[in-house]
Amino acid sequence: MTEESIETTTDFPIFRDIRRYTCGFCGIVRSKKTIIQAHIQSHHQDEIKENEGNEEEEQEGGKMNVCEECGASFKKPAHLKQHMQSHSLEGLNLY
Q1: Average pLDDT in the 20-27 region?
Q2: Smallest Cα–Cα separation from 88: which of 74, 73, 75, 69?
Q3: What residues have CB less than 8 Å from 77, skipping those under 6 apart?
Q4: How far are the Cα atoms of 2, 11, 14 from residue 6, in angstroms, in the given order?
Q5: DSSP 64
Q6: What is the longest distance spanned by two Cα atoms in the chain?
Q7: pLDDT at 48
Q8: Average pLDDT over the chain, rounded to whole?
Q9: Rounded Cα–Cα distance for residues 83 and 81 (Å)
């Protein structure tokens, strides 16, 4: 490369797009998470309330991990597995 080409490339400022946070409702992008949070709270309250209602319905009617022996339900499979161990200890009668 010649000196002339180096000089012409430094004549223009380099702009880098640092915006990373996107609104999930309307798609605007901002550089700070707090700005997006404030935007969502001020512009999308109705959508937030609708989504909260849908999430509650999914949790109630969604895939739950239910113990076949006693009917206890757990959100996470690991909690059900830990609970099932308590049933296996009941059958041992170590006392």
Answers
A1: 87
A2: 69
A3: 65
A4: 7, 9, 14
A5: -
A6: 90
A7: 83
A8: 76
A9: 5
Residue 38 pLDDT > 90, yes or no? yes
Rounded Cα gap, residues 65 and 73, in angstroms: 5
Q: Please state, in angstroms and rounded to a whole number, the distance separating the CA atoms of residues 87 and 65.
A: 15
Who's near 7: CB < 8 A, 6+ residues apart? none
Tokens matching residue 93: 């009668």
DSSP state of 24: T
- The total of other beta-carbon atoms located within 10 Å of residue 52's CB is 10
DSSP H stretches of helix in 1-95: 3-10, 33-43, 45-61, 77-90
